Amino acid sequence: MIDLVEVKHIAQLARIKFSEEELQDLQKDLSSILDYFHKLEEVKIDDIKLSSHLSRSRNTTREDESSENNSQINKKLLELAPETKERFIKVKSVFN
Amino acid sequence: MDISSLTIKKIRKSLIDKKFSCKEVVESYLDNIQKLNKEINAFITVLDKQAIKQAKEIDKLISQGETLPALGGVPIAIKDNMLVEGERCTAGSKILDNYIAPYNATVIKKIKEQGGIILGKTNLDEFAMGASGEYSAYGPTKNPHNLEYVPGGSSSGSAAAVSAQMSMVALGSDTAGSVRCPSSFCGVVGMKPTYGAVSRYGLIALASSLDQIGPIAKNVEDAEVLFNVIKGKDFMDATSYEQPQKADKKVDIKNLKIGVVKECLGHGIQKEIVDITKEAINKLEKQGIRIETVSLPHLEYGVACYYIIMPAEASSNLARYDGVKFGMRREADNLLNNYFETRGEFFGPEVKRRIMIGTYCLSSGYYDSYYLKAQKMQNKIKQDFEKVFEKVDLLLTPTSPFLPFKLEERLKDPLSMYMADLLTVPANLAGLPAISVPAGRVGDLPVGIQFMAPQYEEERIFKAAKFFEDLC
Known about the structure:
heterodimer, A: 2 strands, B: 13% strand
């Protein structure tokens, strides 16, 4: 069983607020899921080399040119933000 | 108007012959949605006005004697994790409850260019995380064949809509089986293309190294037509590619050897599923198809491997939902608490669970024992496939290890839900194309079988699935 303190620490990293009850449920669920992962230890995999997921190894690149400024899409994207000021998305101050 | 027997080809011919108008077709489907959606809950958003408007445009095209594009007049339902410009896109989550798509996904752009008519946005497990449709924040979808059962997930609404004649075809997305599982449970055809065959631009990401968009249809031919429209390289998705042109263009099913994966007919697979799969194998053998028993020795490790890789990627992908740039926000006293409150309130329990697993696996000190190990296992599974495909051209397995289950049956135990991916996830881990086709029923519950092929060999799975479909 993983420690409740550890569950709380992970919740901090994940930036999610949980109730005490939720944290206890998570402790139980995470423990059984992490236990299940130990199944992987049944197989010797140390000799496996890591390669890219795709068999196509060629990288995709494009010319280093700026694309046309699309003010329509910029406007729409800004409209989706909960709070804006002029052409900027507004957030609460990070430094006090 | 009887829409149950319509296919893309038939709609096309009937429209050109003026047997009925596109508006009539679309209205028939919209009527069905109106009648059935309350119970089945396949659609989150119905785009009735837009669909009628598009239908009228198609009718105008026909009356002017213009050529009908590939999907001209074909009603399509879209999983609500793909962006349709100007329409709401929720991904089944309350955190995107107010989100209006600012642009079209590449697949939507292509469908619109080819005259496809978008009927609406379909229900799904929140952010495509689930195998039953029950993790949607907009209520569970029901299986049209029996309303007490789940339709499978996560493309629950898309498969249910096609199955219940609420749409002719649909798009889903498949990260571990999310197109194939609900297709099997709902008795329709669902296909996951090779990784990169279809652009994901405008698809709300779950696990980017595995996600792929695929078609759902009543028959294999319609699925293939839809796949041919949406596939291809896209500047906006660097992982997309152009299908390589092959010299041996004509694939003859009689020349292909099908491998039956022995691990898929043994331990952990429900007896009824094994029986139907064996029956399917017999049917194929009787037609002179060469069958060979093969082994994928690491198949059983796919789920453990996947439930490390996917949450790791998902926890990063879902970091963007912070109440700052778009979506819902819950105000608090400072910026950091804004994040905590927003994510705590608007993410559902399964999404939170997976973000927590992913964050744990990626956190300092655990990377080697989880993520690295999972990646190595992924390679091992890939090697298994490479070896097997030296001997056979295609693989045949059941799609799901068990029958559609009752609503709420697996909700309490997340691991039992994860097991639904057992036979579908290997294709995602290896980037292979795979298709689920209906193979039989147990009572009123449909059962599908799955064909898998090497990367880029979509033609083989379509050929095999069509051949099998004709035998049923």
